[in-house]
Amino acid sequence: MALKPGENLIPKDENGKVISDSVDLCTTWEAMEKCKDAGLAKSIGVSNFNRRQLEMILNKPGLKYKPVCNQVECHPYLNQSKLLDFCKSKDIVLVAYSALGSQRDKRWVDPNSPVLLEDPVLCAVAKKHKRTPALIALRYQLQRGVVVLAKSYNEQRIRQNLQVFEFQLTSEDMKVLDGLNSNFRYNIFTDLFPGHPNYPFSDEY
């Protein structure tokens, strides 16, 4: 979502409304293709694109490189199954952010939203495998073919996260975790971007 150029990450007017800019996504993509041609980028991809926006790029006349990945919010409460299937059909890797829920930043996350890692179903699967709920949430994504981003500054947690490669969930476990999906989005940016012409979350996927 293009915003007014300048020093501010999120530029706002005197009424606190975000100041958007009208930049064509395809024009931006062409600039990124030039970066790849110049050797400035090994791969180029997108983030928070819905299916319609992906198709806009994929169907662009003169497309040189399609997006390698689409980085989106993805976790058991928002498993993005339809978008995942679409991306797989186009050989685009789905990359998950907020895979463990979300940091509760009041700027874009409702502090009353449910805590994913305290979900009783997720905790029950974790107890069954003698793992943490976080590991179950990460393993769930890997087995679906999703690349996971899990940020931590804690060495113990980083080491713990690597255990995700040491076990597997059963098909029954996967179905149970699929059942947690409620299309619940932590990062909706309600107060910031809904009026933006490229706001991506109004579409089904």
From TrEMBL:
Keyword Oxidoreductase tagged: yes
Domain NADP-dependent oxidoreductase: 22-181
A Pfam family the protein falls into: Aldo_ket_red
Gene3D superfamilies (alphabetical): NADP-dependent oxidoreductase domain
Keyword check for Oxidoreductase: yes
One example GO MF annotation: oxidoreductase activity
Keywords: NADP, Oxidoreductase
Segment forming the signal sequence: none
Family: Belongs to the aldo/keto reductase family.
Protein's name according to its UniProt entry: Aldo-keto reductase family 1 member C3-like
Gene: LOC103261883
